[in-house]
Amino acid sequence: MARFLLACYPIAGHRTPNIAVGRALAERGHEVAIYSGSMARPSVEQAGLVFIPYHQEVDERITKILLARDEASFAGGVSVKRASPLDFRKTSALMSDWFLSTVPQQVRDLQDAIDDWQPDVLVTDISLFGPILVLKDMVSIPVAVFCVLIACPLPGPDAPT
User: Fold this and answer.
1) Can you name the residues that pair with 79 across neighbouring β-strands?
2) Which burial class, exposed, middle or buried, applies to 161 when counting CB atoms under 10 A from its CB (0-12, 13-18, 19+)?
């Protein structure tokens, strides 16, 4: 049997599919750990999987970003703020901070997790750029990308097929 390390953001749309994959792997006899933010800990542990937390600095930054968005139900019912899609500069800065500024710490965290937990495979959420852009060239284990999108995100009849 193999050891799988799954890496994802702690919000429900990313956490839940990763937990489902983790449970399916565990039911087949594999060992599974999930690297995520503290908001995911209860769900991961309730599923019987090993929880590997983000470094405190990354966890605080991601939580702050998620909580800085405009009135939407995110992260298990926590009321959070979402930037207006019309305010491109604000949205662009938020996305840059969310997806790019945490890459160096993601890489350090996951290198430590790989050294300590010794997985055979790292499966990363498509939106965690650290493993995809950097870590894949630094580790000797396979890095697989898991996309949680279940449909085309472009709405309307004029969307490309």
Assistant:
1) 73
2) exposed
* Tokens describing residue 32: 């599974």
List residues bridging with 7 in a β-sheet.
Answer: 35, 124
- Does 31 have pLDDT greater than 60? yes
Burial class from Cβ neighbours inside 10 Å (0-12, 13-18, 19+) for residue 37 reads: buried
Answer yes or no: are the C-beta atoms of 138 and 110 closer than 8 Å: no
Of 17 and 93, the one with more pLDDT: 17
pLDDT in tens, 37-88: 999 999 999 999 999 999 998 899 888 877 765 434 444 444 444 445 455 5
Distance CA 113, CA 129 (A): 16
Tokens found for residue 152: 């085309």
Contact status, residue 69 vs residue 81, Cβ threshold 8 Å: yes
Residues in contact with 158: Cβ distance below 8 Å, sequence separation at least 6, in sequence order: none
Distance CA 47, CA 26 (A): 10
According to DSSP, residue 64 is labeled H
- Hey, what are 95's tokens? 């996305």
